[in-house]
Amino acid sequence: MTDKLTGERLVDDMTDAERDRAARIESVLPALRAAAAKADEEARFPVEHVALLREAGLLGLVVPERYGGLGGTLRDLAAATFAMGTACPSTALAYFFHNTSASRGLLPLEAIDAGLFTGAEVPVVRAFAEKVLTRMASGTWLANFASESVKSSGANITIATTARRTGGGWILDGEKSFGCATGVADYYLTTAKLEGHDTAEGLVTFFVPREAPGVSVRAPWDGLGMRATANNGIRLDGVFVPGDEALTVPGAFTRMLRMSRGSFVGNQLAIAAVYTGCAQNVYDTVVEELTRRTFADTGRPIASSPMHQVLFGDMTVQLETAYLWLRRQLRLETSEPPLLPKTEVFRQWRMGKGAVTEACFQVALGAFKASGTSGAMMGGVVGRALRDLAMGLVMTFPAERGRLEAAQMVTEAKENELFTTADRT
């Protein structure tokens, strides 16, 4: 019988083609796992992982074969980030954000096919979209920079970085507070707003070379989360971007988002898969260690004590909870034909993201309690997992915001059912 691949623990019904792609991921896991502790200790992204993933052809995992990629889908990406999460969550997170760049190519092409662009817009949109995909497939690492420190009450992500036209291209000014692979990626795929626009219709996208004049790295990020992601962010001070390295068609961004199956650009569940892989690893590690270690007086495994049995039972329930939510969301976003309307898929994700990340954190918390003081080491698997998984509680949005939005969708829809019209008599 063929050995089960790590990614199959999440995506347990892989096709032969998916399994072949998952085998490529499996081949890099030993190197990722070997570097994880040192990378975390030094808070440094292992730059050697870029070459490792490039040589395995994995930078084009979700790029269609016609553009030189491996032809994977969201199922492949979720399996990949999960598997990497069991080995080095920091690399898994950075790899996830690289792959989100593909949406800037795939969704515009789908929008073209759906007739959402005019005849004059199509060549410009197609050229940029295909450039994204061919660069990824050729081994170019893209860092996807959208998030900023500025916040607004009505949106999860607010864009303040501006783009103003100049001879031959555009000038960018602003600051990106969150984005993996700072100083590592070949290009920063940067979202900005056209000068003079105040709505999402003015959101535009640029290829910003890592070494472009005016690009600088923000202060090192020493956050409560995955420390080896090169998550410092960037400053853009009068950065020039040529016109053919930008997609500045007004409304292009919002039109492409209409093509996603659910969350934002349709791949956000793969970040929850990173956390689930991390939770699975700390669970496996603690179960093995406390089953192997024994009490000095009885010789029985430490894991057999009533307290530990309760903790392991709780951890098992939490881990299975994460799997159930994640697999359900994956099915909703990949099934053909779609099982639910997009609004319901989106609502499910607003609940699911928080449910997965909170469950994963509870796994790490249980592992911490089960391990006791001997496991309370910052450089150990338990300590790293507790810190890594804490980030999931706030990444993009906390569970409370997702549940609030889901409740509003449900109650507002029901409220509308209470109103009707009648003929006057």
TrEMBL record:
All copies of domain Acyl-CoA dehydrogenase C-terminal, residue ranges: 269-390
Keyword Flavoprotein: yes
Pathway: Sulfur metabolism; dibenzothiophene degradation
UniProt-annotated location(s): Cytoplasm
Ranges where the Acyl-CoA dehydrogenase/oxidase N-terminal domain occurs: 33-103
GO MF term set: acyl-CoA dehydrogenase activity; flavin adenine dinucleotide binding; monooxygenase activity
Keyword annotations of the record: Flavoprotein, FMN, Monooxygenase, Nucleotide-binding, Oxidoreductase
Any single Gene Ontology cellular-component annotation: cytoplasm
Enzyme class, spelled out: oxidoreductase
Annotated protein name in UniProt: Dibenzothiophene monooxygenase
